[in-house]
Amino acid sequence: MHLVVRWLLAPFVRFLYRPVVHGAERVPRFGPVIIAANHRAAVDTAVIALTAGRSVSFLGKAEYFTATGLRGRAFASFLSALGYVPVDRANAKAGLAALEAARTVLDDGGAFAIYPEGTRSLDGRLHRGHTGVATLALSTGAPVVPVALIGTERVQPVGARFPRLRRVTVHFGEPLDFSRYEGLEGSGMIRRAVTDEIMDAIAGLSHQEYVDTYHERPAA
């Protein structure tokens, strides 16, 4: 499945959508790196995976990996090939489990992608980031590459079941080094400062209006 995704599916999707990519060379080809992006649509994960220039891991719901039958096993295998790491989000300690899964990827020298906003932006603005991204950067020493995804909300608008043919643009920024804060990951003030610096870099790439409040989805 990894070979199918890498050698068949990925080139076909890139040919079909022809994404405009800026700064992909800024993503280190080796060693741990955190890719922090804005979040506009469900296809964002696929866009990052296809343009980052190296294998990238993401968090995925654990139930996606436990489905039975041929179809369920095939879907789980497909998600694994895309780089998804299963996490039980229904667990009371889901946040800690997610951070631990991310640390495992980074400690193994891998690339891990995260959306600091925590959920897709439904109003098009860039919202305040959660400090999990700072916790990862400070505890692992991994550099953070800010990323702006532009136009993905047109590929798969909210409520659309299938992606549409629309051009997207991906901007990879300069890696951010937070080694100056080594040993200070226990400080909430430092975690907030690091997160805000990352969000500021994303805003500079995406040109979205920044809102200093967490994004909350409307009640169903």
Automatic annotation (TrEMBL):
Keyword set includes Acyltransferase: yes
A Gene Ontology molecular function term of the record: acyltransferase activity
SUPFAM superfamilies: Glycerol-3-phosphate (1)-acyltransferase (SSF69593)
SMART domains assigned to the protein according to its UniProt record, in alphabetical order: PlsC
Superkingdom of the source species: Bacteria
Segments forming domain Phospholipid/glycerol acyltransferase: 33-152
Pfam families: Acyltransferase
Keyword line: Acyltransferase, Transferase
Family matches, as InterPro entries: Plipid/glycerol_acylTrfase (IPR002123)
PANTHER family xref list: 1-ACYL-SN-GLYCEROL-3-PHOSPHATE ACYLTRANSFERASE
Protein name: Lysophospholipid acyltransferase family protein
